[in-house]
């Protein structure tokens, strides 16, 4: 085994392409450029009546919920946001009848998410679940849902479940969009991109060996930043979460746009930054921020797309294949899993069972 590869997290990362195929199987409609999600239990009339989407989850499920909110806003043009279920359930939330609540959970047993679902339902709201474990508490409690078919996930750090959550959000956003104003040609564009994703996932996983050396350098830092903006910000949050939970290094996610309003004061040769710089409407601004970091001696690792011109900024660069821009976040996330994995393995840590953490928190 090279580079200490093995264990649950490793195998679950390697299963992501197959898991992506499983969550999409039988759910894409090429002819009408839409998705079929029978388990949602919502007809077209009910779907059209949705005015807002509120996504609830904890940890990685919350961060992928932020990615899902962007997908829903972009494809369905419905205002959407994600909130940590652990906060939502304690703040006496206003439950609106024309809001669709979406609970996201690998285990389907996370107590904060389950109690958030119960709070919504007690007040008459409609909740659908994005859940992996069939027949779990959340799966039984919701009005309808999408099973993730990720297969068993054992490592505490979520990898393949998160990838299937992202794809389930893509299907949901596509279906919501197509009963509203998303055109058939845009629908077909997304369907084709989704069909291509499993192979692209495999392609990104093949970067693994090339990330080992950089991961080892990052492991030597006590503190690091993960930055991105708009679609890239939840990617940075998820990347920082993975890194901190399995390497025990302080990893903080920040919006690239906010660096100059505070964290730039901390940048130095001892504080590396991992930057998400997709080819999109903000590429030039992101590259500008890289220069600001480099000017202060901050080491840079950039996850980007082929052809993006980073100028003369000193950095280690990793290119992931492009998808359609709405779907880019998932491919940008995968190298961050690999970085965390290789850094933690290098440090000799128990990657699958990090200290102080449980796979699912089922009691208060
Ligand atoms: C945390 C786990 O306790 O629960 C995270 O450490 C996970 O990895 C989170 O993302 C949510 O779990 P679930 O099962 O609700 O998706």
From TrEMBL:
Start and end residues of each SIS domain: 42-182, 214-354
Which reactions are catalysed by this chain? D-fructose 6-phosphate + L-glutamine = D-glucosamine 6-phosphate + L-glutamate
Q: Does the keyword Aminoacyl-tRNA synthetase apply?
A: no
GO terms, molecular function: glutamine-fructose-6-phosphate transaminase (isomerizing) activity
Q: Does the keyword Transferase apply?
A: yes
Task: Give the top-rank taxon of the lineage listed in the UniProt record for this protein.
Answer: Bacteria
Q: What is its EC number?
A: 2.6.1.16
Could you list this entry's UniProt keywords, alphabetically sorted.
Aminotransferase, Glutamine amidotransferase, Repeat, Transferase
In its UniProt entry, what is this protein called?
Answer: Glutamine--fructose-6-phosphate aminotransferase [isomerizing]
């Amino acid at each position: 085994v090279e580079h200490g590869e093995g264990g649950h997290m490793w195998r679950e990362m390697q299963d992501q392409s197959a898991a992506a195929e499983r969550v999409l199987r039988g759910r894409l409609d090429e002819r009408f450029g839409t998705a079929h999600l029978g388990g949602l239990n919502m007809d077209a009339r009910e779907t059209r009546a949705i005015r807002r989407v509120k996504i609830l989850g904890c940890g990685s499920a919350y961060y992928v919920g932020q990615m899902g909110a962007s997908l829903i806003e972009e494809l369905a043009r419905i205002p959407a946001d994600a909130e940590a279920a652990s906060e939502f359930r304690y703040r006496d939330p206003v439950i609106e009848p024309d809001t669709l609540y979406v609970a996201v959970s690998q285990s389907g047993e996370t107590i904060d998410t389950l109690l958030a679902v119960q709070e919504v339902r007690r007040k008459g709201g409609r909740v659908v679940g994005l859940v992996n474990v069939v027949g779990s508490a959340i799966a039984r409690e919701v009005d309808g849902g999408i099973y993730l078919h990720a297969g068993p996930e054992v490592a505490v750090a979520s990898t393949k479940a998160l990838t299937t959550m992202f794809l389930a959000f893509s299907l949901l956003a596509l279906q919501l969009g197509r009963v509203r104003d998303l055109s058939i040609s845009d629908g077909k564009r997304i369907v084709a991109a989704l069909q291509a994703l499993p192979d692209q996932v495999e392609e990104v996983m093949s970067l693994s060996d090339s990330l080992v050396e950089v991961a080892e350098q990052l492991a030597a830092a006590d503190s690091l930043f993960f930055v991105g903006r708009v679609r890239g910000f939840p990617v940075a949050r998820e990347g920082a979460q993975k890194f901190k939970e399995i390497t025990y290094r302080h990893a903080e996610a920040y919006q690239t746009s906010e660096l100059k309003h505070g964290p730039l004061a901390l940048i130095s040769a001892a504080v590396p930054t991992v930057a998400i710089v997709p080819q999109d409407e903000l590429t030039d601004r992101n590259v500008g921020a890289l220069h600001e970091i480099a000017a202060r001696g901050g080491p840079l690792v950039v996850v980007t797309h082929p052809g993006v011109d980073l100028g003369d900024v000193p950095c280690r660069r990793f290119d992931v294949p492009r998808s359609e821009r709405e779907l880019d976040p998932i491919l940008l996330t995968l190298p961050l899993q690999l970085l965390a994995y290789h850094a933690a393995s290098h440090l000799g840590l128990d990657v699958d069972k990090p200290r102080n953490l449980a796979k699912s928190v089922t009691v208060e």
